[in-house]
Design a protein that fits this description.
The complex is a heterodimer.
Chain A (H helix, E strand, L loop, with lengths): L2 H30 L7 H19 L2 H25 L4 H23 L14 E3 L9 H5 L1 E3 H19 L1 H11 L1 H6 L4 H28 L10 H11 L4 H23 L6 H20 L20
Antiparallel strand pairs in A: 1-2
Helix pairs in contact in A: 1-6, 1-9, 1-10, 1-11, 2-3, 2-4, 2-9, 2-10, 3-4, 3-9, 6-7, 6-11, 10-11, 10-12, 11-12
Chain B lengths: L8 H28 L4 H14 L1 H25 L8 H18 L5 H30 L3 H20 L24 E2 L3 E2 L1 H18 L1 H11 L1 H6 L4 H28 L10 H11 L4 H25 L4 H24 L1
Antiparallel strand pairs in B: 1-2
Helix pairs in contact in B: 1-2, 1-13, 2-3, 2-12, 3-7, 3-10, 3-11, 3-12, 4-5, 4-6, 4-10, 5-6, 5-10, 7-8, 7-12, 8-10, 11-12, 11-13, 12-13
Classes of the chains: A mainly alpha, B mainly alpha.
Organism (chain A): Fervidicoccus fontis
GO cellular component, one term (chain A): plasma membrane
Protein name (chain A): ABC transporter permease
Chain lengths: 311, 344
């Protein structure tokens, strides 16, 4: 493997880090206010479908990403209505919305594009070469020759970390996920915050899907997400619901995926199906590893009802 | 919800009316989607609701779909009693199919009365084994079963691909599938269309009902699901019940896979799981995990499936509209429940 091949391969780790970390941060943001949104996989598919279609017809990446976010908000609205307003079991709502969003994303594409022999294609997001820094040998082309969303994702992670862990507002938000009753007693608007952060979380998931279509594949297929949404839930748990650790976990899984592609390209004497199983097996192992010291928001998955007696 | 209040016929009728309203609302949304796609809405409704009964072959096809949806629904319902979500029925179904194909392909020249029970038992065991992994992860490490069972699904997809393109590959087919199973490993057909597999569902419905609602195990399972702390204090060993229910659910889903191989495809075919898992989850939730009510919801959804497939053929409407309508239906049913509970 020569220098150019190696740097482009390692550069892909950052590209793949984006959908994993955006989706995981979406799950984390909801979890911090006590809402465990497992519809991720479906929301990502819908986001990818909408973003691809809008960019394909308008030629604008900004509009594409925004429509991915928009679809995320739409499904987030349903999530927060059923789970926070009506207080229906979050897992049931999440699974049903996963099914709904999977159907929705696929329907959108089928209705507008139809079934074609060769799928229509958009160019991938343009890469931004940061002057000087991108000239650094090895590191430069890997770290400083990426598309805008890669940088934006890292900024979002830093921003969320600062907001949640370094400000008093963040402390209030996290207290909702730990003990909503106490937070309510302190005068924090628990219901409003749950609505807002569920929406933000779902929007991030939609953006993750949008990036898959615009920054990674350039086409839409029904298998574009292929389990990355579910793996993102594991990354969130691995990342202890902390944006910076989630970034690390996302990098790790992006690395595993790139490794699988590399081994495939090198034609190792292992059936490719076994290689494709690897990320999922590794995820299971990581879930075991993190289970011993899993730190989760204490009120995760529990609806908050002022009138109920039980905690 | 309390045991004291007696449900009268009037209450049942009231509940039925509310649920009909929820189902109608979901169909209403489907109609709106059809409108935006410039389709004939009334023709769409007619196709969805009547195709199953339009001819004997269509009805037989409905029953063919009903069997796996019902059994996978039961595979979801048993763990649901202990508040566990077995989203892994898809993989468990596929492993059952793998086991059935292995028996049917390798054991030739044996009479049907030996090979058929063997094939179905192997399918059952394979499904159970596939569910044992998440069950053990739950028991020893308290790993969330939704994530672990889904991950097992993805592993099973690649496993099926590996086998369908492996030594048993049918090289004459242009699609990943194995060679057919021996003729004695195939389920007999009764009447002209309907195979014995669908009779299994009725038997299992009764059995499932008795296990969940009339046995000590079922009682403990439901107690551990509805109030784990109280159940624990009453001496119920709650920690092993939930994992065990996952394994049982996996066995039933595996059996569904075996029946599909032995009664419909006669081989392992990639993608044979269709979207049964999603449907099974919804019908199980709609039946509140009750195996007898599940008969009704499964049949209703099989009907919608046949109708939606017919719509795709005759009207060119993407099949996905069924998936959207079905998930909304369940969300609306729960909305009705939530509103009724608030009023109480």
């Amino acid at each position: 493997m020569n220098y150019a091949e190696l740097t482009s391969l390692l550069g892909y780790i950052l590209v793949l880090m984006v959908p994993y970390s955006l989706a995981s941060m979406g799950i984390m943001v909801g979890g911090r206010v006590g809402v465990f949104n497992v519809s991720t996989e479906g929301v990502m598919l819908s986001g990818a479908s909408a973003a691809f279609l809008v960019t394909y017809f308008s030629g604008s990446y900004t509009l594409g990403i925004l429509s991915g976010i928009g679809v995320g908000l739409l499904i987030g609205l349903m999530m927060t209505f059923f789970a926070n307003k009506l207080k229906i079991d979050q897992f049931i709502v999440g699974i049903l919305l996963y099914i709904f969003a999977t159907g929705f994303g696929s329907l959108l594409y089928k209705e507008i594009i139809g079934i074609t022999l060769y799928p229509p294609r958009v160019n991938l997001l343009p890469r931004i070469k940061i002057p000087l820094l991108s000239q650094i040998p090895y590191l430069g082309p890997i770290l400083f020759n990426q598309d805008a969303i890669v940088y934006i994702t890292i900024l979002i992670a830093l921003l969320l970390y600062y907001l949640l862990f370094k400000t008093s507002f963040g402390l209030k938000i996290r207290s909702i996920g730990e003990n909503p009753r106490a937070a309510d007693a302190l005068g924090i608007n628990v219901f409003l915050m749950r609505h807002i952060f569920t929406l933000i979380g779902s929007a991030l998931m939609g953006m993750a899907g949008a990036y898959l279509a615009l920054g990674f594949t350039g086409i839409y297929t029904n298998t574009i997400v292929s389990g990355r949404g579910w793996i993102s839930i594991a990354i969130t748990i691995f990342g202890r619901w902390n944006p910076l650790w989630i970034l690390v976990g996302a990098l790790l899984f992006a690395g595993v995926e790139v490794l699988v592609y590399t081994l495939q390209a090198m034609e190792v004497s292992m059936p490719y199906q076994v290689l494709m199983m690897l990320p999922f097996i590794i995820t299971l192992l990581i879930l075991i590893y993190t289970s011993r010291k899993a730190e989760m928001p204490a009120a995760l998955g529990k609806p908050y009802d002022r009138e109920s007696i039980e905690e | 919800m309390t045991a004291v209040s007696k449900t009268t016929v009037k209450d049942y009728l009231k509940a039925a009316a509310y649920y009909l309203l929820a189902i109608a609302a979901a169909f209403g949304v489907a109609g709106l989607i059809l409108l935006t796609m410039h389709q004939d809405v009334l023709l769409g409704y007619k196709t969805i609701l009547t195709t199953s009964f339009s001819s004997l072959p269509n009805f037989a096809l409905t029953i063919f779909k009903f069997t796996p949806i019902y059994l996978m629904g039961l595979g979801f319902s048993i763990p649901l009693a202990s508040r566990k979500f077995n989203v892994g029925i898809e993989g468990q179904f596929l492993l059952g199919a793998v086991g059935a194909a292995a028996v049917g392909i390798t054991l030739t020249g044996m009479p049907g009365y030996i090979i058929l029970p063997l094939l179905l038992t192997v399918a059952l065991i394979m499904g159970a084994i596939w569910a044992t992994v998440p069950a053990l992860l739950l028991y020893f490490f308290r790993v969330n079963e939704i994530i672990s069972t889904i991950l097992m699904n993805f592993i099973s997809f690649y496993l099926v691909d590996l086998i369908a393109l492996g030594p048993w590959r049918d090289v004459t087919a242009g699609y990943p599938m194995t060679i057919p199973i021996s003729s004695s490993a195939r389920l007999p057909i009764i009447g002209s269309q309907i195979n014995i597999g669908s009779l299994f569902t009725i038997a299992l419905a009764v059995l499932g009902f008795f296990i969940l609602y009339r046995s000590t195990f079922g009682y403990e399972l439901r107690a551990s699901g509805s109030n784990p702390i109280a159940a624990f204090k009453f001496g119920i060993k709650t920690s092993y019940l939930a994992p065990l229910s996952l394994v049982l659910g996996g066995a039933v889903a595996g059996l569904a896979g075996g029946l599909e191989v032995s009664g419909l495809y006669f081989r392992l075919v990639e993608g044979m799981q269709s979207n049964y898992a999603n449907l099974a989850i919804i019908v199980s939730l709609m039946a509140r995990g009750n195996p007898v009510a599940l008969l009704l919801t499964s049949f209703f959804f099989s009907m919608i499936e046949i109708g939606a497939n017919a719509m795709q053929r005759t009207m060119g409407t993407p099949y996905e509209i069924a998936l959207i309508t079905e998930s909304l239906m369940m969300l609306f049913v729960m909305t009705v429940d939530a509103i009724r509970q608030k009023r109480r």
